[in-house]
Give the backbone structure.
Amino acid sequence: MLNWHPDPFVIRFVKLLTKFTGHPRRSAPSLLPRITLSTSTRKTSVMNRSITRIGFTLIELLVVIAIIAVLIGILLPALGHARATGRQVVCGTNLRSISQTVAQYVNDNDMYPMSYVYGNDQNTGIWTVQDQRDGNPMPANGYIHWSFALYADIKDGTGIPEGLFTCPGVTSGGAPRTNPGSNFDDWEPGQLNDVGAPAPAPLPQDRQAKRIAYTGNAALFPRNKLNSTTPRGNQFVRSGMVDQSRMGPTKTILATEFYDDKNAWQSLTTSSNGRIKSHRSLDPFLGIARGVDIYNEPNDDSMAHFVYPRKSDISRFNRVSSHPIVDTRSRLNAVGRHHLNHAANFAFVDGHVQTTTVLETVRLRLWGDRYFSLTGNNTVNVKANSF
């Protein structure tokens, strides 16, 4: 047996009790036989207490679950925000590389690349000025896109990788070519090429990045209407035109991101016919007389014929039309809204990239003060429609 030694206070209490009851005086421990514990009994008691401590009550379990739920609610939005920020940074970095390569192209050629031209054949980047008219004289040759001028010389070390034209924040990294070619994976579901053929029609096949998330400022990247029969046509944009303008390179947007509707790039179709127009740059200005029909805007020197869109012309992020690339209010509705706060990345002529909303770029008049790529008086009245 294992004897337990009581507290001195207990011993004094027992002595007093013995004195008043007349019991013969005994040693304190002998008066307390019932508090003597066996080793086995003590072990069993400790074990029972240990088992009781290990268990959880229902309330304790619910509290733990509630705490975990709160932590998840706090952490998941933060993780989602971090991922969105990461995608935004990657897209902006790619766009900066593109703008720097455009700057190199302009330095080498003293002009900005054409938005697109009709090819002279089906494979190379050769084209002729006389073939650039209102309609394609050789539809089977497809388009030569401005991206081709930037990555075509990659073998010589003077271009950029084709993958830099993609953005992880949009469907498939970017829109498909208008004429994707023979590889089925380069098409979107339901897409038709420019001659109305479905996947995987081998011809025409555009000389363009397979996936393109970015589009140019059409005031700098001319379309191919160099021999147009309309009152206005396109012209080459020399580097000095922008450098000597009032806005200058630091306040003139060069390129931005396409709007992705998350519906197989239907946002870049002109109608429900499935023909995606990813080869086009975006017109930032409106004609005073003809609106988005800029080629039929009267051509005279008496006044500025172009203006920025009104605030009401720019759609809110949740009210973009089904085909914003042909929106009759403003083609700028085809600018992306897929980053945080419904913003997009914008590269400027001087090479810096800014993340903001398309509405803010219009408010601050960041698309330039001239429609450089159009013939005739191409001055923009930057004070009109201000807000």
Summary: The chain has six helices and eleven strands.
